[in-house]
Write a structure and sequence with these properties.
By secondary structure, the protein is an alpha/beta fold. Helix content is about 30%, strand content about 20%. It is built from 8 helices and 9 strands. Bound molecules: adenosine monophosphate.
């Protein structure tokens, strides 16, 4: 069963009646197979799930796409109703009717995680992660779920939220779910639909570059990777924001302690910004520069 909830009051009443486990899947809607994979995992691991659909104004910069971000609630509900679940499982969908349902009038709190939020996307989108952590904290408080599901697609976001949960001793288990891609390797994103057919082709450079980095590292050729050169090679059709190879645990520079590597990239194609990453274990030769 799917239950659509439009207000925090309605949700809090509903929440008081749930005694079994609850899994939370925060989204901005316009659901695709990436979101659905999170919701399916949550259904597999919990009695009930809460999918939130809220285009959070606080995480968009003044010149970003808040206004034109696709809002497709009917379609989202349809997609969620296709998930595999037992008869007695409920998918609660909290799609607040107004911004005030999440941020009551006069709301004046910001949750801000320093350090890990200040690099990569944090540099080109000032204030973005404060918007993310503030809304996610609020959703955690409302949901009172045991587990929350996020995508590796937004890996830095996951790491920022992980730090918030650690620092504030929040009683919730976080799960980081694999990136779902289309058959060409492009990571699914609600923003892909802004792209023309040609731009979509050009966008493949992002996942392909990350793959080539992974391959080189696995072949023990880390020293030969020049990310500046890689960005220059591919700068005719896309503008690179960043391309970095970091420690997958903490997003710091690779060190002798590094066990997992993450290669992360962000590009701009026209007005569209896309991000992607690959996370893989560090095997074989040392790659400390
Ligand atoms: P969004 O609606 O873009 O805020 O995303 C909601 C959640 O879905 C976030 O935890 C994202 O990381 C996750 N997500 C988005 N795209 C994908 C994808 N292609 N594969 C897996 N998870 C994703």
């Amino acid at each position: 069963m799917i239950k659509l909830i439009k207000s925090r009051k309605q949700w809090l009443l509903q929440r008081s009646e749930i005694s079994e486990s609850l899994g939370l899947v925060p989204t901005m809607g316009n659901l695709h197979l990436g979101h659905l994979s999170l919701a399916q995992k949550a259904l597999d691991e919990n009695k009930h799930i809460l999918v939130t659909i809220f285009v959070n104004p606080k995480q968009f910069g003044p010149n970003e796409d808040f206004e034109r971000y696709p809002r497709t609630l009917e379609q989202d509900l349809e997609l969620l109703s296709g998930l595999k679940k037992n008869e007695d499982q409920v998918i609660y969908v909290f799609a607040p009717a107004s911004i005030e349902e999440i941020y009551p009038i006069g709301f004046s709190t910001t949750i801000s995680v320093k350090g890990v939020s200040e690099k990569l996307c944090g540099l080109s989108r000032p204030g973005h992660f404060d918007g993310v952590t503030t809304v996610v904290y609020q959703l955690f408080a409302l949901a009172r779920a045991q587990k929350a599901y996020f995508g590796q697609k937004d890996y830095q976001q996951y790491k920022v939220i992980e730090k918030m949960v650690h620092d504030l001793c929040l009683d919730i288990e976080l799960l980081c779910c694999p990136i779902i891609r289309d058959q060409d390797g492009l990571a699914l994103s609600s923003r892909n639909q802004y792209l023309s057919a040609d731009e979509k082709k050009a966008a493949l450079i992002l996942s392909q570059t990350l793959q080539s980095i992974q391959k080189k590292i696995e072949q023990g050729e880390f020293q030969k990777i020049d990310t500046v050169e890689l960005k220059n090679e591919n700068s005719s059709t896309v503008q690179w924001d960043y391309l970095e190879i970091l420690d997958g645990e903490n997003l710091n520079e690779i060190s002798s302690e590094t066990k997992q590597v993450v290669a992360l990239g962000a590009i701009n194609i026209g007005k569209t910004r896309l991000i992607d990453n690959l996370l893989f274990p560090l095997t074989g030769a040392s790659i400390v520069r």
